[in-house]
């Protein structure tokens, strides 16, 4: 199972629909400061179900919606679609390709979908967990966070391992 | 429950030693239970001894040494959990050239078992990519992505790190 | 007491705007009292708006943008306190090439008023040095230092960043 | 007033007496990971009177004493001498050059000296304060700490400014 692509629409600095295509091996994202690389990382955390605005570098979830520039107005909605290759059947649903999507409106209303069918986060999370993708924090090391891996006390480190076991 | 944890812990501890050996040739890394007779409650310590140095407290390690030790732990956990994909945002920022090569060697070891997405400003990391994704921001404050498969690049032969890989 | 703080605050706020302008050409940085009618107790906010972008929460800035904003604040305080020397350990780690040049331009502005000691892995920073100190570790686990004055280097003419300086 | 040199003897990875010479302008320290660059930064914080083992990346001050390698035994004492140029008379003592030294023995016994004469930290701190060198934390940004400058809440930022005013 691997990521085929993530498509951002109105998510943070990605005002227009932007598809980011991956290959099964080593994918490297590059570019100048402030262009949107970490925003792509956060879009993956977000579509996998992150409930914490802190993981989005904010205290309000609505901050993930494109908030405008001098030549583009703010948008009313953010949407991210993550497309996974499931040819090895690791995700327990009968599709060779699985698309998970999440939307958020400025009203606070949010929606999830699985291959286009409206879905609940709980159901999606269950399917992902079966494939070894826990909640987003288990598949991402955010910018500046690698050193924190070592700062845990021995007891904390034990609980991290217990959770993962 | 004790067995589930102990088996998992044993796997991670073994993988940690191997990953550490790749990142610190001639050095030694170990995980250690603070109370070996109390597998139910014991905390977990990390010992990291770079080549040619004595074992000291984790805090006394240099910035680059800490990054590498944390990466050995991250990859040990990935292998033990069979995580299908993983995202790392600028985890190579503190690495000098020699250590960067070692880190890339470790990612190469994992290439067939896990899909990786790395954000990086480091040239060598870019050169190691199977797929390179360039992010830019237009003057209208909107992010864009262009992808490049190094198979399609003209200059592969002039990249010594690719020549080896 | 209020006047001592207000005068100092005014100086720092003005210096911050200038330093920010050097690091973010076309952008704007400001310090702001959260309660302007309560100079005795008011908190201090920082607003950072990179060129071509809207003003957003500090947290939404990218890693490199945060580094630059923090550096504008550090240098504003140095100027206002007439600090004689200052040490910065790997503060340029998150900066891309363009922003690194801007940071070095800022340090050049301060060259006659404050002695700086920078630790860095960045080539351009090394090239900007009046004095370069190389640290190595012998196989006997002992650190050594060799110093080099670029005045003595043969290759000054081929370093464009030095040719300008 | 500027730093002329810092001499490390038995301080962390500097087993042998090592003089690090500076110039008034921009000094850049470079070298591979783990060679001792941040140790030099900490030696400056330490000789200026830092009382916190945390600033030395430890929980015990004795960890600053060279603790041995496979070919060199541990030492019993760490000593750092900071030599300052005082030709502008900014330090309120009648010497064109001022040497501040600090020693620590494994017994925990420590000693300060000013131009060779035994001295108390309080007296040295007073002299430094007159020249705009507060306690060490006002002249150093440690590795990994630049981002923390921005994380302060508005009230905390105000107190930082008040202290500095
Ligand atoms: N809701 C939003 N609407 C529009 N732009 C946004 C929004 N949220 C964040 N941004 C912009 O995204 C930019 C940050 O992007 P990001 O953190 O992905 O940069 P980066 O490519 O990772 O850079 P670095 O190399 O410095 O880490 C900021 O400049 C910010 O203004
Ligand atoms: N008391 C001590 N005795 C001997 N060696 C020590 C002592 N304390 C720390 N060290 C060694 O100093 C090294 C760290 O040095 P330092 O943090 O200065 O590296 P650095 O040059 O800043 O590297 P980086 O570029 O990775 O930040 C560690 O490898 C550690 O083993
Ligand atoms: Mg980033
Ligand atoms: Mg360091």
Q: How would you sum up this structure in a few lines?
A:
Chain A is an alpha+beta fold and 165 residues long.
- Range of strand content of chain A: 25-35%
DSSP, total strands of chain A: 8
Bound small molecules, by name, code or SMILES, are: adenosine-5'-triphosphate, magnesium ion
Rg from alpha-carbon coordinates of chain B: 19 Å
Compressed to H and E, one letter per element, the order of chain A equals EEEHEEEEHEHH
Please summarize the sheet with the most strands of chain A. Answer: 6 strands, antiparallel
Classify the helix fraction of chain A into a percent range.
10-25%
Distance between the termini of chain A: 20 Å
Number of helices of chain A: 4
Oligomer: heterotetramer
Tell me what portion of residues of chain B adopts beta-strand conformation. Answer: 15-25%
- Count of helix runs of chain B: 5
- Uncertain segments of chain A: none
> What is the H/E order of chain B?
HEEHEHEHEEH
Number of strands of chain B: 6
On the 0 to 100 scale, the average pLDDT of chain A is: 95
Largest sheet of chain B: 2 strands, antiparallel
Q: What is the strand arrangement across the widest sheet of chain B?
A: 1-2
Considering the chains and any ligands shown, give keywords for the structure.
heterotetramer, A: 165 residues, alpha+beta, six-stranded antiparallel beta sheet, 4 helices, B: 165 residues, two-stranded antiparallel sheet, two-stranded parallel ribbon, 39% helix, disordered C terminus, binds adenosine-5'-triphosphate, binds magnesium ion
């Amino acid at each position: 199972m691997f990521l085929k692509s993530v498509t951002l629409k109105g998510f943070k600095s990605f005002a227009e629909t932007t598809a980011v295509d991956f290959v099964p091996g080593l994918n490297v994202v590059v570019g100048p400061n402030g262009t949107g690389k970490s925003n792509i990382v956060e879009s993956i955390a977000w579509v996998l179900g992150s409930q914490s605005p802190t993981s989005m570098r904010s205290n309000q979830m609505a901050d993930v919606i494109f908030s405008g520039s001098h030549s583009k107005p703010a948008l009313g909605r953010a949407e991210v679609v993550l497309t996974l290759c499931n040819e090895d059947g690791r995700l327990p649903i009968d599709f060779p390709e699985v698309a998970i999507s999440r939307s958020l409106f400025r009203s606070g209303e949010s929606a999830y979908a699985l291959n286009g069918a409206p879905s609940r986060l709980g159901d999606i999370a269950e399917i992902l967990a079966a494939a070894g993708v826990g909640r987003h924090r288990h598949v991402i090391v955010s910018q500046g966070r690698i050193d924190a891996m070592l700062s845990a006390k021995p007891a904390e480190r034990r609980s991290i391992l217990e959770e993962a076991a | 429950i004790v067995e589930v944890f102990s088996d998992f812990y044993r796997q991670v501890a073994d993988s940690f030693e191997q990953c550490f050996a790749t990142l610190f040739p001639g050095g030694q890394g170990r995980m250690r239970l603070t109370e070996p007779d109390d597998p139910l409650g014991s905390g977990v310590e990390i010992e990291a001894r770079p080549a040619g140095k004595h074992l000291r407290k984790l805090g006394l390690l240099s910035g680059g040494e800490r990054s590498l030790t944390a990466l050995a732990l991250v990859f040990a956990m990935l292998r033990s959990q069979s995580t299908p994909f993983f995202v790392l945002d600028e985890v190579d920022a503190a690495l000098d050239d020699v250590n960067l090569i070692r880190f890339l060697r470790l990612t190469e070891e994992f290439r067939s078992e896990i899909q990786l997405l790395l954000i990086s400003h480091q040239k060598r990391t870019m050169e190691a990519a199977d797929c390179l994704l360039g992010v830019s921001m237009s003057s209208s404050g909107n992010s864009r992505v262009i992808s490049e498969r190094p198979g399609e690049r003209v200059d592969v032969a002039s990249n010594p790190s690719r020549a080896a890989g």
